[in-house]
Specification:
The complex is a heterodimer of chains A (about 850) and B (about 170).
Chain A lengths: L24 H6 L14 E7 L5 E7 L1 H5 L3 E6 H4 L28 E2 L5 E7 L2 H8 L3 E6 L6 H6 L17 E8 H4 L5 H11 L1 E12 L8 E5 L5 E5 L4 H12 L6 E4 L15 H13 L3 E4 L2 H7 L3 E12 L5 E13 L9 H6 L11 E9 L13 H19 L3 H8 L8 E2 L5 E2 L4 H12 L1 H14 L3 E11 L7 H6 L8 E7 L5 E5 L8 H13 L6 E4 L17 H28 L6 E4 L2 E4 L5 E3 H10 L13 E5 L8 E11 L5 E11 L6 H20 L31 E5 L16 H18 L13 H8 L28 H11 L1
Parallel strand pairs in A: 1-12, 10-11, 14-15, 20-21, 27-28
Antiparallel strand pairs in A: 1-5, 2-4, 2-6, 3-5, 7-15, 8-13, 9-10, 9-12, 13-14, 16-17, 18-26, 19-20, 19-25, 22-23, 23-24, 26-27
Chain B lengths: L1 E7 L2 E7 L5 H8 L18 E4 L2 E4 L12 E3 L12 H8 L9 H14 L5 H7 L11 H12 L2 H14 L1
Parallel strand pairs in B: 1-5
Antiparallel strand pairs in B: 1-2, 3-4, 3-5
Classes of the chains: A alpha+beta (about 850), B alpha+beta (about 170).
Amino acid sequence: MTATQERPADEVEREIGRERRRKEDQRLITGRTRWTDNLTLPGMLHLAMVRSPFAHARITGIDTTAAKQATNVVGVFTGADLADSLGACINAWAITTDQVTPDHPPMPADRVTFAGEIVAVVAARSAAEARDAAELVDVEYDELPAALDLKEAAEATADTGAALAHPELGTNRSAYWVFDSAEAGTGGDVEEAIAQARTDGILLEREYRQQRLIPAFMEPRSVVVDPTGEQITVWSATQIPHILRFAIAATTGVPESKIRVIAPDVGGGFGGKLQQTPEEMIAFAVARRLGKPVKYTETRSESLMSAHHGRDQWQRLTLAATKDGRVTGLKVDLLADLGAYVAIVGGGVPVLGAFMFNAIYKFPAYRFQCQTVLTNKVWTDAYRGAGRPEATYAIERLMDELAAEVGEDPLAVRERNWIKHEEFPFQTVAGLEYDSGNYEAATARAKELFGYDELRAEQQRRRESGDRVQLGIGISTFTEMCGLAPSRVLGQLNYGAGGWEHASVRMLATGKVEVVTGASAHGQGHETAFSQIVADRLGVPFDDVEVLHGDTQISHKGLDTYGSRSLVVGGEALVRAADKVVEKAKPIAAHLLEASVDDLEFGGGRFHVRGTDQGIAITEIATAVFAAHNLPDGVEPTLDSEATYDPVNFNFPHGTHLCAMEVDTETGALSMRKYVCVDDIGNIINPLIVSGQVHGGLVQGIAQALWEEAVYDDSGTLVSGSFVDYLLPTAADTISFEIDHTTSPATTNSLGTKGVGEAGTIASTPAVVNAVVDALRPLGVHDVQMPCTPERVWRAINSSGSGGATEGAAAPHFDASTGMEGTVDRTAGAQDGGTDA
Amino acid sequence: MTRISLTVDGARVSDDVEPRTLLVHYLRETLGKTGTVIGCDTSNCGACTVHLDGHSVKSCNVLAVQADGAEVTTIEGLAQDGRLHPVQEAFRECHGLQCGFCTPGMIMQSVDLLNENPNPTEEEIRLGLEGNLCRCTGYHNIVKAVQHAAAQGAGTATAAGAGAGAGA
């Protein structure tokens, strides 16, 4: 009940929008970290895994005698030894009711289905001794034919004698999922559009390869299980502590209430730690069997061969358009490689893409069909973007192809087809409602930053002079759906869980605030951004807010972090919880101020009596509630509040990305000269954190375009199985970026924010490949398969323009100087190729 | 077992180690210096970078016995008298880290880079950090952090600091 002398509310600096330095950084830059592998418990044993060297084999015998006799070995277990307690790895998303889903034992007893699968585990007093003993486990295998090639696997049947990943299933086909706009009532019949285009229009048929990628988070996965005490505690380098707890309970029979999962400091995930892993289940079983704490930390080689991979699709695309480049229909036919098992959301990844092939465009008709296929490779699942990068790549490559066909600037063709800003909210042909966006504004800003017209002019000069180094300009005008997800929609898609998020706000007696979120950070900066939100909402100092997460005992309820959901779903839950605190405090404030509730207003952390200088801080109310000496009758003595928020819609960030690439036509070497992106992610909580998300996302997308690929040999061995062979980009491979933002606030959450975690990755891959192809189009090149290595670029140049031997080969070349059909004779260019010049 | 004696972050330590023990395992498992982390098994990622007698090494690529008699500085010993090293400050200031797992190695390598070249160009920074992988930042803000630290005179300050540290 103090008279207010503080600054009025409107003078308090808003936290939202400030470039706050991160709260997380102090411990990370000084090495005072809590990575799972840092944990040591009394009597803790270390595990080492024995893994199959074969892609597909029957286990005919396992001799553990020598390993068991090794010094300081406490136990050696096979799948048979632990069969009754291992539980199972779950598939939470059967995309069709008749999906073929092989059982996934964490450690199979009779048959291995990919190279790297675990067949035995050793527990010893030190990690080195465990590994030494693992070498002594003698496993006999009877090798079986392996299904490795995605297309061949899709066609294989038991009758033909072709390899089946799981022979007992009789097929490699897991699920066939279809969306058709005519059937759904969201658009026309794509076959009619295709027939029309065939006779009087443009018909593009293309096939693109989404190569297999490895998430390659920097912290190898690690798990510690401690069965001491009433509860079994699991520390894991995971993105999904809550879902992991559910999955362990659901498959082992241990009550969920007896399991505590903690995700301490987690070193990156990118979807790669969105998994219930065999290693976690094996560690859980061994700890229970031995009654001792155990730790397992994978080596990098183990991580690359056994942690789930991403992408791996063949995309067959048919785009119908009018002669002036208006798209009339799009048909998408996908083959998606699941690997050896259907991972936790593995089958659903292509389905997430199904709603995004139409992207920012107004297509009258659309059909998507996808066959998921089992093979004898490590399972695939979410990797940054999960389904949406694949879709964005396909459509943004196609829009460039269409522009080449029409002979116009690719941006002009895009604009002819995209949703105009005054048309929002817009109902798409894929059945989604885009709430907001302004593609014109983002594109205009990107062109300005990029120097688009100047670079086009330079490109033209180089083409005319036959310069050995050609310049390509790549475009990607992307959107994505994120903020996963409205639970009702997930239910319609047969997903096994909801998409809500939970938050609570606890007002401590000393005026400090504890915020608990069900999101589980692993590099995103939740502690900082969420502190900013709560500081603003409650009017308390940023430094007085403590954000707690990643421990199911503290955060009892949550659905964790993936799909760019933490802010747009978890942040909204937080806002609602904080608002409830204010609502609870209000009658107490009125009581203490001896004023009417109706005369109070809240701002800058204080309740004020309108027209007076009387007021009280919400932190003072927290102290008064703690004492509870003087509260209104019938009022519960607490301000603590929680909220569970289920989003009403997905969230649709968008942006325009432009890439300038120099291509040496003699060597195939590429040199990125400039990359500009203007993303519209709505209102921004912390611009610094956003910039980091964008930069990192860009490089992961660029890496798919240029460097990364998980490669298996003919026997099913991962040959890109170390960082020597799997090419993560280094600082020397990359450039500095120019990024900016336009702002169309989301209308479906109160902060007006949109997700940003995946945007850069989703957008950048097609921008880069479009740039490479754009540079080489006069030489007859229409496609370069990813990753666009110098060798592949060189081969594309030197295969007489067969890089995309489709209709596009005869297309006239766009002449930037006139905007009209080109004056460059592309046929001559293709034959002579700048290479001979 | 072989007896080794060395100085780690200013403290004199002595232990019996297996000859095959890597320096990084000695630091983490014997000394509890878990600030230094392991990111790969092929010496590609640089997450385990420390200073050995004032110069950066990948501690997964050095045997503990090779560090006998040496001065080792880890990320935990970089701050002096409660004050962050300018490179640590710069990484925070420029948001040069996200998950933070590569950060100890990245900072130790950056300090070494600036000691050798107090005013590097962007290209020199990028080449100097080529042996350290980061999956989060896209390197953009790491480069900015090193530039920021250079502008604060980190290279010259560190050179003196490293000398003092080595003599401590």
